[in-house]
Design a protein that fits this description.
By secondary structure, the protein is an all-beta fold. Helices cover 0% and strands 58% of the residues. It has no helices and 22 strands. Strands 1, 3, 4, 6, 8, 10, 11, 13, 14, 16, 17, 19, 20 and 22 form a 14-stranded parallel beta sheet that branches. Strands 2-5-7-9-12-15-18-21 form an eight-stranded parallel beta sheet, with no helix packed on it. It starts with a strand and ends with a strand.
Length: 198
């Protein structure tokens, strides 16, 4: 399925309520706000597979996970291409108190104005954790970014050609020490915490 915004519509797919959502084999493109917005006010799970999210505005997000109130989210983003957006994948734990856990696997995040993947939270709000594995973040503002007391974990992933490869700002960015972080204008701002492979 192709969901076409023609540069006029604000959001391609939006979830405000519901226990679960699966998006498979889709193209979401040309929106002037957010490609895929998940903003549940209760617990939900999601799966986004084999999907392209393209060409939101430079300030818009490709995929935004942003629970509201007591909402929480658990999901997997697998084999997704996000290009020419603001942030490609933005996991935002600042508007809710429920836990957020997102795994990004085998995905390509390229040519975005903001971050390839950003995990963000603030004190007193959602405990936010994002795991990224086997993914490429290139030619973005920032490859992989952590903000506030969120946790971002990287395994077997690449950040290259970005303005900043890795950015750590207030929380934890764990590296399994098998990532390739080089060829960026600035490879690293902040402290990476290594994790042993098991």
């Amino acid at each position: 399925m192709t969901i076409e915004g023609s540069g006029v519509a604000t959001t391609g797919i939006r979830l405000n309520s519901g226990a679960s959502l699966a998006i498979v084999n889709c193209v979401v493109r040309h929106f002037n706000g957010t490609g895929i917005l998940l903003a549940p006010a209760a617990a939900m799970s999601f799966l986004i597979v084999n999907t392209l999210v393209l060409d939101t505005l430079s300030t818009g997000d490709g995929i935004l996970v942003d629970p509201q109130g007591n909402g929480s989210a658990n999901g997997v983003i697998y084999h997704v291409v996000a290009s020419q957006n603001g942030h490609a994948i933005y996991v935002r734990g600042v508007d809710s108190t429920g836990p957020i856990n997102v795994t990004v696997v085998n995905s390509t995040l390229s040519g975005n104005n903001g971050d390839g993947v950003i995990a963000q939270s603030i004190s007193g709000h959602s405990a936010t954790a994002v795991m990224v594995r086997d993914s490429i973040s290139s030619n973005n503002g920032v490859g992989f970014s952590e903000a506030g007391p969120a946790t971002l974990r990287l395994a077997h992933s690449v950040a290259t050609g970005n303005d900043i490869g890795i950015q750590v700002n207030g929380g934890v960015l764990n590296s399994y020490v098998d990532n390739d972080i080089n060829g960026n204008t600035n490879d690293n701002t902040g402290v990476l915490t290594p994790l042993a492979m098991h």
